[in-house]
Amino acid sequence: MKDFGESFSNPARRAQPAPAPIQGIDAAAKKLAECMDYPWEHMPEAGRTKMREHAQAVIQAAAPVPQVVPAEIAAIAERLHTQDNRITDNPLFAVQQKLRVYGVDTDYRDGFEYANEVGETCEEGDKSAREVGYVDRWEFVTGCLTEQGCKDYIACNGHNLHEPRIYAYGSYRNAEFIALRKWLMSLDRAALQGVGKP
């Protein structure tokens, strides 16, 4: 899963690996010359210099590239380690809103209201009042990796929601979500300290 992290990296921000020691470069250059069937001892100094440059390029291309983790991703990874998971394995936190469905049969309703013939709420004593049963359902609005993500969403968009709440869904057998969550949690916490800070 290590390669997955490179999709989050910005190539322009990647640190370049340190140049290999001269002795290592010479050994690599000699091996490269041997593979090209050009004996090192018969090669002029200009050719050896060029072969060292090629060997250095191969060594740098093969060196592991350090990951650069954006500050937002680092913050999510830290919250995954420290948040309350609500006794749920690999929770997917969700924002829900209450949705009231009217016209439900008396035997299945959560409650009732009085409504007139055009469906407007009215008082029990009104001439055209009749009981209208309802049930309250919780409607999924959005999912987040962390509870804080849900809180941030509600702070930003809660004015458009009806009685929002945060719910933790289990992710049993959701291999894709579990893999992403585990990868985020595998990021080196020590290396993430100070990420995104000036």
Top keywords for this entry?
rod-shaped; alpha+beta; disordered N terminus; 198 residues; 4-stranded antiparallel sheet
What does this structure look like?
By secondary structure, the protein is of the alpha+beta class. It has a domain at 18-62. It is built from seven helices and four strands, in the order H-H-H-H-E-E-E-H-E-H-H. It has helices at residues 2-6, 22-35, 45-62, 71-82, 147-157, 175-186, 189-192; strands spanning 92-102, 111-115, 130-144, 165-169. Strands 2-3-1-4 form a four-stranded antiparallel beta sheet. Helix 2 packs across helix 3. The longest helix is centred in the N-terminal third of the chain and has 18 residues, at 45-62. The radius of gyration is 31 Å and the shape is rod-shaped.
* Low-confidence parts: 1-16
SSE succession:
HHHHEEEHEHH
Main sheet record: 4 strands, antiparallel
Number of strands: 4
Shape assignment: rod-shaped
How are the SSEs ordered, and which strands pair?
Blueprint: H1 2-6, H2 22-35, H3 45-62, H4 71-82, E1 92-102, E2 111-115, E3 130-144, H5 147-157, E4 165-169, H6 175-186, H7 189-192
Helix pairs in contact: 2-3, 4-6
